[in-house]
Design brief:
Helices cover 72% and strands 3% of the residues. The chain is mostly helical.
Length: 396
C-alpha cells in the first residue's frame, strides 16, 4: 500500500462512523417500506416545506423587519449531492476550488482510488482541506439544512427517513402515534427552514465571514507548503521536540503531515493559548520552534486577524438564527413536539442553552428591538464586543 493510499484509507476511516450510520438509516428505511403493517405515510419534506415557506417568510419579516430575498430558493438534494454541496461551503481561493470539489466528490462516492488521485494533485491542499472534509461529512446525519449563495438546502435523506424510523421504533399500533410523530416532523421542518431562511437575510455577515475564512485557508495552505518543504533533519528534530509519535522513514509525507496538524494554528495556538486567543493582538511561540521554522510566528500573527473576524461574525450569524427560531417558534406546538420527540428536551431547556452569539443578539434586541438585526448585519461585532455586550452597544 502506498503512502497516499494510507492517507485515503485514514480519511475514509475517520468518516466511517457517519457513513455506517447512513447505511443503517437506509437499511432500516428499506425494512420499514417492506413492512406490510406499516401503512402510514408522511408527506415528503418538499411537499411540507413548500406549504410552510410563505408563513415562515412572513414571520421572519415581522420579527426582524427584514424580508427574505425573493430570489432565495429551496432545494432538497440527496445524500451524495449534499456531500458535494458541503464542499462548496468550504470557502477558499479560486485556485483551490477544483481541488476541494474533487475531494468532496470522491468522498461522497467513497471512492478510494479517486481520493488518492485528488491527493496527488496537491498534498498541501489535502492537508488543509481534509480536516474540513472530515468535519463536514461526519455531521451529515445530524445536519438538517444548509444555506449557500442564495439557496437553502434541506437534507432530504435524513428528513425523509427520521419520522418513519421514530414512529417504527415506538412500535405498534403505528396509527395511534402517527399524529404526534407527524407534528414533531413538521416542527423539525419549520425549525430547519426558518433557521436557513434567517441565514439568507444576513448578506453582509455572510460575505464578511466568507472573506475571513478564505484568508484563513490561504494562510493554512502557505503553512502546509512550508512544512512539506522542510528537510528530513529538521522534520526529525522538530518532531522529537514536539514529542510527536515516531513515523517510519518510508512515510516522509506522513511525518510532515503530523507536524502540520500539530502546528496548524487552529490546533496549536488555540490549544496552547486557549480560547482567549480570540481577543489577543499578538502571539508568542516557543523560540525553539521558531528557530526550526522561522516563518511560523509571522504566519500565526497574520492568522489572528481573519480568524477573529470569522469567530465574531460566524458566532453572530449562528446566534441570530437560533434567537429567531426560539422566539418565532416559542409557542408553536409542532416545534414543542419536535423538541420532545426528536431531541428529548423541552422549550425551557432549549432556550437557556448558552451561546455567545445568541447572548449578544439577545442583548442588542433588548436595547434596539427589531432594528437590532439590521444593525448587527451591517455592523458586525469584534471578538471583544462578542463577549462585552455593552462595548458593542456603546459603539453602535
Amino acid at each position: 500500500m502506498t503512502e497516499l493510499e494510507e492517507f485515503a484509507d485514514a480519511l475514509l476511516d475517520q468518516i466511517s462512523v457517519e457513513t455506517n450510520e447512513e447505511k443503517d438509516i437506509a437499511r432500516l428505511s428499506s425494512r420499514i417500506a417492506e413492512d406490510p403493517e406499516f401503512k402510514v405515510k408522511f408527506e415528503t419534506p418538499e411537499q411540507t416545506v413548500r406549504q410552510l415557506i410563505p408563513e415562515l417568510r412572513q414571520k421572519i419579516f415581522e420579527f426582524t423587519g427584514i424580508a427574505v430575498p425573493e430570489h432565495v430558493r429551496i432545494e432538497f438534494p440527496g445524500l451524495e449531492e449534499l456531500k458535494k454541496i458541503k464542499g462548496c461551503k468550504v470557502f477558499a481561493r479560486q485556485e483551490s476550488r477544483n481541488f476541494i470539489d474533487g475531494l468532496f466528490a470522491a468522498l461522497a462516492k467513497e471512492d478510494r482510488q479517486q481520493i488518492v488521485s485528488v491527493i496527488k494533485e496537491d498534498i498541501a491542499k489535502f492537508l488543509v482541506y481534509s480536516t474540513y472534509a472530515k468535519s463536514y461529512i461526519s455531521k451529515i446525519s445530524t445536519t438538517y439544512g444548509d444555506y449557500l449563495d442564495g439557496t437553502v438546502y434541506l437534507n432530504n435523506f435524513v428528513l425523509t427517513s427520521y419520522p418513519q424510523i421514530i414512529l417504527y421504533k415506538q412500535g405498534r399500533p403505528f396509527e395511534a402515534r402517527y399524529d404526534s410523530v407527524k407534528s414533531g416532523y413538521i416542527g423539525a421542518l419549520k425549525m430547519t427552514a426558518l433557521e436557513e431562511l434567517v441565514h439568507s437575510i444576513q448578506s453582509n455577515l455572510y460575505e464578511e465571514n466568507k472573506a475571513a475564512v478564505i484568508e484563513v485557508n490561504k494562510i493554512n495552505e502557505e503553512l502546509a507548503g512550508i512544512i512539506l518543504s522542510l528537510d528530513d533533519a529538521t522534520v526529525a528534530k522538530l518532531s522529537e521536540y514536539l514529542q510527536l509519535p515516531q513515523v517510519p522513514d518510508e512515510f516522509p509525507i506522513a511525518k510532515r503531515a503530523n507536524l502540520f496538524f500539530m502546528l496548524n494554528p487552529d490546533n496549536f495556538i488555540v490549544n496552547v493559548l486557549g480560547p482567549d486567543v480570540m481577543t489577543f493582538t499578538k502571539v508568542e511561540i516557543d523560540p525553539g520552534i521558531s528557530q526550526m521554522v522561522p516563518q511560523l510566528l509571522g504566519i500565526y500573527q497574520r492568522w489572528l486577524g481573519p480568524i477573529q473576524k470569522h469567530h465574531a461574525v460566524f458566532s453572530t450569524m449562528e446566534g441570530m438564527a437560533e434567537f429567531c427560531v426560539q422566539n418565532i417558534l416559542r409557542e408553536d406546538s409542532d416545534f414543542h413536539q419536535y423538541l420532545t420527540m426528536f431531541m428529548g428536551t423541552d422549550i425551557s431547556s432549549y432556550t437557556v442553552r448558552k451561546h455567545m452569539g445568541k447572548d449578544l443578539v439577545s442583548a442588542v434586541y433588548s436595547s434596539r428591538g427589531k432594528d437590532a438585526f439590521s444593525i448587527m448585519i451591517k455592523n458586525p461585532p469584534t471578538t471583544r464586543e462578542l463577549k462585552d455586550h455593552q462595548r458593542y452597544l456603546s459603539r453602535i
